[in-house]
Fold this sequence. Notes:
The chain is of the alpha+beta class. Helix content is about 45%, strand content about 20%.
Amino acid sequence: MARIEVKQEIMIQEKKNREKRQNNKTKLYTLSIPPTPQVPFLQADRHSEIIRAFEDGCPAFFTMNSYGEVDFYFYLTDDEYFEDFVESPENYKVYFIDADVLEVIVFYDDERAAFPLVFNLRSPMERHVLAWLAKKKRVNVYYIVNYEDEYFCTGLKVADLPLAFAYDLERFLNGERALLLPAFAETVLESGFFNQDLLLHHGWGFYINYSALSKRIGSNEDTDEILSRHLLDLTACLQSNWCLFRKDQETEKNELMLIWVGKKIRLFQENQPDEYYCIYLTGDFVQNESQNPVKTVAMEALKEIPELEHTSWIAPLAEESIPLVALQGSLPYRLNLTNDFYYLSDRLFKEYFLPHNEYVSYYSYAVNDRRLSPQGAKVYSLVKKRQEKGFFADKDMTPADVLHLAKWGNEEDLAAIFAHLNLLQGSKLDEAIYILSQKYKQLLEPYFFSLLETGPGEEMYDAVLLGLGLIESVKGVPIMTGRLQGTAKEAAVAFDALLLVGDPAIPHLIPLLQNAKAGIRLRAVKLLGTLGSEKALAVLRKMAEDRSVRVEKARRAFLKGLDQLEQERL
């Protein structure tokens, strides 16, 4: 009887153990509760793993919190501040250590410290973390500092993950090959080496159904980014196999291979168009053979895109493509395509591939859009000529017209340019402001001030503020210092504008050193320290010890750096 009872107890215990093991397998996240403004400190029990990692010298840690979201914890040193990271985008490097382990390094554009994170697929929780990142494409980033032997959160940012990074994670989780990155040459290759023979070369074309790929991915923007990622991988594969291509080839060391890209439309049933993204390879080693090593390597790299449909032996120029990368002696170079390239391509296309006389090729459009005046030649404004001939009125002005006037117009065109400057956005607006600032300098000052009086949107306001900085407008400094006291984004633009003005801005910065807000005083200290002139550093020396630890640390750091430089000079 006793034996039966013991056996029953053993069976009950085994059942409990099985349930416990099952529970352990399904539990994929910790009970970690993130810091909050009300409770910013890391708790010794709740966040013990994070604290232990920081004390062991690791500046980064990740976890999946009790809300089912992924958190990154970054430990900041004494000379790093949350404000420095608010507007700076995160960059990611991925290193695949083996089939189950990868290292992600998060870094920023400047020289701030990098934050390494290691993930192991053999851990169910860590696999789930990676899957969540790949799906949601965002992460919560907590910036942690140590003050009086306690760790507390000084700020939080919800950061969007770059699509290319999320795409690499997804491939890693699916057990697919890691996409490579090429080692580009530091210099850009000018397109002056192109001649008729190079441009008329035939090569292998690879045709990817862009319409189908975009439908699968969800947007054209994401599709373009994924194609760019595979194009970089193709470049790296060609680079790593260069010795294979050279085998049994009696060629010189300056062999050249070109990677071209283009797009084309095909009509199928019911005249439904499909757009294709086309990649072409021409040059040395590229031969019209089914087992050509270059074609084999390219197919191996590109076949991972399911929408790759077929290949063809063809001249890229015939399909109005442009060369994107040149591999010379296994080293990839980015290309700077000048007007000479487009003029020659336009002429050769018309001579060899023009389908009919009325056809206007991409090269012809490019030649018309990229007209550059020869040195010493008189520049005429096409926009003005069209106005004079009555082809269109001011209300018909397009963004391209405004940018054209900024590039090729004269001082008399400034009124028209600024009246329509609101048509430009993003990089085009920045380009116009830069071009105008370089051409007209102080003449722009009244135009900039008039534009600010109209109450422009944030993008235009920031562009004008930088324009005032580019022309070193002392009159604009009060506006800049006012903006320096605004939000972090406003302050970042004002910071850059004041740096461009230089020492004349110093008298306006001195009052900010007495501002009631430590954040404003910190911005003024950093600006003076970054200016680095004798006048700016003299102000920092005369400044009384600040009541804020962070402000005082920043001030002393700049002065310490100056002292070290002076000692090195001696």
